Structures are given as C-alpha cells and as structure tokens.
Amino acid sequence: MPKFIIERYFAEKLELSDEGKLHIKQINDEEGIEWIYSFLSADKRKTYCLYEAPDEDALRRAAERLNIPADVITAVDRVDPGVFA
C-alpha cells in the first residue's frame, strides 16, 4: 500500500485523550488508512505523520472527518541506511 507523510500545523499544543485516540482509529479504519507513527515538534504544535493509505483523498477525508489539519501530504518511498552500505 502507498505511504504518505502528512505535515500538520496546530494553533495550540496537541493533546489527545484516550477517547480521542479511539475516535481517530475508528475513522482511519473506515477510510482504509493506517497511522504508522508520528513525530511531534518540541513545542507540540507541528506533527509529521506516516500513513499507509490507498490514496491522498482517503487521508484528506479522514482529516476532514476528524476536524484536524492535513496541511501538506507527500507520497513517500522508504530508503534505509542499508542501501548505502
């Protein structure tokens, strides 16, 4: 499945309750996407999230349903250090 990075900018610090995390998982499941992991900036106002998704539109639909930003979506391929050894 294709992989994407979503860059998100938040007006305030990002904080998620356990209920919020479950809601995210439910919407992602319904849209056929999987949240792999995220990096959170030190000020907790910006994230870089790696997803597997059928396409960019599925990611945008999920973000819209969750009322969270999806400021920049970039399709990516994995490159690990082993290719340079």
Structure, described:
The chain is of the alpha+beta class and 85 residues long. It has 2 helices and 4 strands, in the order E-H-E-E-H-E. Strands 2-3-1-4 form a 4-stranded antiparallel sheet, covered by helices on one side. The mean pLDDT is 91.
Record the SSE blueprint.
Layout (H helix, E strand, L loop, with lengths): L2 E7 L8 H14 L2 E7 L5 E7 L3 H11 L5 E5 L9
Antiparallel strand pairs: 1-3, 1-4, 2-3
Helix pairs in contact: 1-2
Describe the structure using short key phrases.
single chain; 85 residues; alpha+beta; Alpha-Beta Plaits; 4-stranded antiparallel β-sheet; 29% helix; SCO4226-like; DUF4242 domain-containing protein; SCO4226
Q: In short, what is this structure?
A:
With 85 residues, this protein is α+β, with helices and mostly antiparallel strands.
Characterize the overall form: globular
Bin the helical content.
25-40%
The CATH class is Alpha Beta
How many distinct domains? 1
CATH architecture: 2-Layer Sandwich
- The CATH superfamily label reads ORF SCO4226, nickel-binding ferredoxin-like monomer
H-E string: EHEEHE
Organism: Ruegeria marisrubri
InterPro entries: SCO4226, SCO4226-like
Pfam families: SCO4226-like
Protein name: DUF4242 domain-containing protein
